[in-house]
Amino acid sequence: MSSELTGRLAPSPTGAQHVGNARTYLIAWLMARSRGGTIRLRIEDIDSPRIKAGAAKQAAEDLRWLGLDWDGETITQTDRVALYEAGLESLKQREQVYPCTCTRTDIAAAASAPHVGQEGPPYPGTCSHRTVADAASLAAEGRPFAWRFRVTESPVFTDLYAGKQRIDLPSLGGDFVVWKSAGTPAYQLAVVVDDAAMGITEVVRGDDLIPSTPRQLLLYQALGLTPPVFAHVPLVVGVDGRRLAKRHGDTRLSALRESGVKPEELVGLLAWSCGWIDEPVAITASELLPLFRLSAIPQRPFVLTAELLRNIGYHA
Fold it and tell me: Quick one: CA dihedral 23, 27, 30, 34, positive or negative?
């Protein structure tokens, strides 16, 4: 295998893995394996209040059930806090972060108008006058604070699947949190530090994370690290056009497995949804290796219906 080409699977144990996750994992695995690359597994468990007991073990079982393997030891984020602390320290030394005492309520109240989407209102820069040295006095006063990264530009990047992307970071959120007031790393910093440390050269994930990419590119640049290339693929949605959730019924991989669905049936359905086979017939992940083409995946989200699930033998 080529050590120069390394992809990753990065489940978050905040809940059970579902059909939508499976499709993205399958694409990521095939993209690396079809070119002789390495695959690493990382459990993204730093969001501790939302972590579900046993979900990490279940995620690994789900991946194995799908026929997806990985190389080397499994990386767990909660074991790597020292690495993230070192990354934060590096940003502090360059004055690229500042202590922020604003709450979400403060930021929402300062917004001039409501903003659509999950990003929330842009950060108004209330604390951006502060320097790293101001953290000491805030700590002495017992005032909790997060560390916020200074956004000075909006990197343009070319996505391997979605093409050239221009995201206006100042209007989409502005300066962003890299370290939470609770004393834990935020997603953006942890992911960048991990992908660099693990030698990840390509990242395949859902297109809902496109807005995260320019933020991560800024962090790669600030930390002097080489970024991977990115491929953001369409999500799996319900008949209402919204991303899969409990409202669409039980689409957990564990539920499919327990009901007797064979992994080859699900993989076949996902392969058909990606345009690699002409009809949803049973096939293994390994059998798809010569058929994989990123460009064949339809641009629109894949609508998962109850009928499609029934056709592979799933009766929720």
Answer: positive
